[in-house]
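Reviewer 2 asked us to include a model.

Predict the structure of this chain.
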Amino acid sequence: MPLPSVVAAVATAGVVFVLVCAVRLAASARARADARRRAHRLLAAGAVAGTLTAAGGIVASLALREHMVHTQGDQTMLGSLLAVGVALSSGLLLFGLLLLPGVAPTLSGALRYLLDAVVIATAIWFVGWVLLSEPTRALGGSTPRWCQPLLIPAAVVALSIGVTAITMMRAPRPRGPVVWVGCGATVAAVSGLGLAGGVCQGATSLVYASVIAFAAGIGVVAVAAPRTDRVLAPPGDPGSAIDEELSRRGSAYAFLPMAAMAASALYHLVRGGDFDLVGIVTGSLEGFVLVARQFLALRDVKAYAEKLRDREAHFRELAHTDPLTGLANRRGLLSALEDEQVAGAEAVLLALDLDGFKNVNDMRGHDVGDAVLVEVGQRLRMNLRPGDVAARLGGDEFAVLMWARPAEAKRAASRLLSALGGPYEQEMGTVFLSVSIGLAGCATVPDVTTLLRNADLALRWAKTHGKNRVELYDVEYDVKLRRRTELEHELRGAIDRDELHLQYQPVVVLPDVRPVGAEALLRWQHPRLGRVGPDEFIPVAEECGMINRLGAWVLHQACHQLSRWLAEGHDVWVSVNVSPRELHATCYVDQVKDALRAHRVPPQRLVLEVTEHAVSTDVEELIRRLRDLRETGVRIALDDFGAGYSSLGQLRRLPVDILKIDHSLVVKEMVRVVVELGHQFGLEVIAEGIGDQRQMAMVVEAGCKLGQGYLSGWPVPAEHFEARLESVTSPARVVPVPEQKSDREQNAGPPPRRAQNVRAVDSAREMRQA
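Predicted model (structure tokens):
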């Protein structure tokens, strides 16, 4: 078979191959959605148009071989038709390339890519025009007429080169598949130019070679296009698309083409050339495209700046807003306070704290707690006036900036107590909460820091004085706060500085007022603050965590003194007050055992007094702890009976040995009832607060044999109490010490005991060892 026939057969097979590629691209378009489907449809349409063009080229070459076309005009007409087909096919391929996923972030981005490609294509076209026109005339002589139909495909080739170059520079990584699609489209465009040129010139070999190259280009497009799905698509947010656009933008796509056009134009002028209509139109098109591209770039910059402003406003709002409740957060409140310049203005700051909210999180879970906080925020919004600022400062702490006078703000705060104190209906049950509110006026404060401190101080005062109340800041709070802070600071070193001491208040037998025991009372004498009462420093010790250390010191000091008295032959017992915090500590029982062992004190000589208020905390835990203490041999006294919350049922269950009547019940009727009740339970009864002879007679008449009060003795130092013990000289008048009774002996009286001769011990040394 002759070689031309073989080439023609191969070219025909190339046409069939292009048709197969078109079918494959159409099938891939049906398998995709949205932008991918649109891009693959354009590529498939370009392949179909290329198939028709290539087939037309084969038919034209056969007509040329069979001499069916006789004139140059007929060849030019056929070439013009093929040039239109080449332009249509290449244009569809280029548009499909620009719409592939991962090439341009948006449709507007694809338009920008196209304008950038036009800048490059126009420069290539202008340089080609300089090379082909006079006086350069790269083809020699005047340009033949058959080249005129090639102007359109030549422009498409330049545009293909521009689009491929922009894709290589600007497409996001990995850009391999889209670059291969661009290269295939460029090869197809160049081959289409050769196809049209071969028909115009009558070169059948060039036509066949161009068809084969065209088929190869379309094949590359068909293979690479489906792989572009693996390219990560840019974010759908327009702002993010602008970020991508600006981050990948360079200046080479515009600078190099303009440099090439300037150099070629200068060369053309130096050679004495003139600019005809084609050169002028090309240069003008380049300028218009650059102006349009810069206009779009300016719009991008403006949109980006607006997006930055929106983002800044959004982030500022996020930074000043509580994400859970939607209220302002601490930073937002501070910003409002600074912006409004509330210092010295007629405004009031309300500090709110939910009482008992920790129990909601512990018992119901944090999800329920968050739901309650959200509803609290909603109730605050519904009960505030326009202009007021509500904020959540953190946890269960809220604040409200209210533009009102203090009296009006206090009434509004009282309404908030009712609004926020109502039940909160949740899926797991109803939640009940109360709220404490502290108010601070802005008119008298110099700055925002002082305002916040005053409101927080008023809130603290409200919580420490009963909760579920409103407190307006008073200057007196500052004095008390400084006093409390100073007490806490000085109390931490009071033991080491030897500022603490014990005083002992006698417990006497009635009516002859002979001491049989003593209650150890802690006293603090500070060198600068003077005498600090226990009702002032004991709550401070409980709040700051010093109470356990103070209690251990008191226990050892009392046992040390008791051991000395017993060693000297005094038949006496000592009672020590126990804080609920100490009692609920797991190591307290061991501390009592260590103190008794260290100072060699018989356990029945030590009485631990528990206030009736401790019963209201955790009855079951209290009973277990008291039983553990009674197993050591010590006796338990229930102090301040009648001032707390214990019931008769609880009194029967509590493992106590002594019942101390609160001084508020020392009246004729109540004393008799309590004494009879204590005796029925098998308890020793001690009447507290006996201050005059009338109360003494009343207690004796009621049958109470033990008493305590200022009438029978004030709290005195150990040596004074010891002197009183020495004054009791008759052994026959010594009253037996009540012993600890078992459950079977609750109704039996205390057996008489003689004073034990406990030898003297070095209690200080054994305290250190313990």
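Residues 277-319 form the longest helix (43 residues). The CA atoms of residues 436 and 463 lie 6 Å apart. We have added this to the supplementary material.
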